[in-house]
Amino acid sequence: MGEPAHNLDNVLTTIKRLPEISAEQDKKFNWLPCFNSILPAQGKNNPYDVLDKVLEVKEKYYNGFLHLQISSNSTDEETRSRLFGGAKVLDLESVISYINKKNITNRTVTLNFIVMKDIEVSVDKLKKMGMSGDKFAVKLIPLNHTNNADNNSLETYANYSNYEKLVQLKDEFNKAGIPTVVDAIAKCEEAGLCCGQLAQIYQ
What is the Cα gyration radius of the chain? Predict the structure, then answer.
């Protein structure tokens, strides 16, 4: 789908309409929409405006039950930009400072880290930036072993054989008072069936 911040109004209009859509089909769903962004610092929409508008929908339309996830991947900003293909993104310290000023109910804001070998993910850095479990949670994900990862010389920090390393990192976050979940990789993802990989393979 691409970066939703570049198509903000259409994405949020659709999210707001989800209960109407299911009602029109006489379906009863408990919606938990997700807005996942790298928060580009350049482009059509200012990243602070993106946060404001998404949080407004989260609190006003979903009683706080919208999943706002910021793709982070490293606590080193130069590395983050490199991992995002050179894109300039809102730095994590600014994200944390801004979110800390907002009213966040029910679902906290998630910082998502695809954890890679030799890529910094520092609990201490995030704590010094002001990150707390009152406003934030963390998600840790192993890196998919894909063609793109191989072509960019990226390796996962942990996976099936040493999954306990991710659990140890989760425990560091939890000891710092930050709720943290660890995802596993589905085999279909490494087979190239997810996240647009088939389109790239086909091309």
Answer: 17
> Contact, 88 vs 43, CB < 8 A?
no
Pair of tokens at residue 195: 């996240």
Q: Give the predicted TM-score (pTM) of the model.
A: 0.88
Q: Which amino acid is at 134?
A: D
- Say how far apart CA 124 and CA 178 lie, in whole Å: 11
**Which domain does 97 fall in, by range?**
4-202
- What is the CB-side half-sphere exposure of residue 78 using CA atoms within 13 A? 0
Q: Which CATH number fits the domain that encloses residue 179?
A: 3.20.20.70
> Which amino acid is residue 25, in one-letter code?
Q
Interacting residues of 95 by C-beta distance below 8 A, sequence separation 6+: 39, 51, 70, 111
**Which residues partner with 68 through β-bridges?**
35
Taking the alpha carbons at both ends of the chain, their separation in whole angstroms is 17
Residues 110, 108: Cα–Cα separation, whole Å: 6
Q: How many domains does the chain have?
A: 1
Q: What confidence score (pLDDT) does residue 163 get?
A: 81
The pLDDT tens digits for 95-150 are 999 999 999 999 999 999 999 999 999 999 999 999 999 999 999 998 876 666 76
| pLDDT of 161 strictly over 80 | no
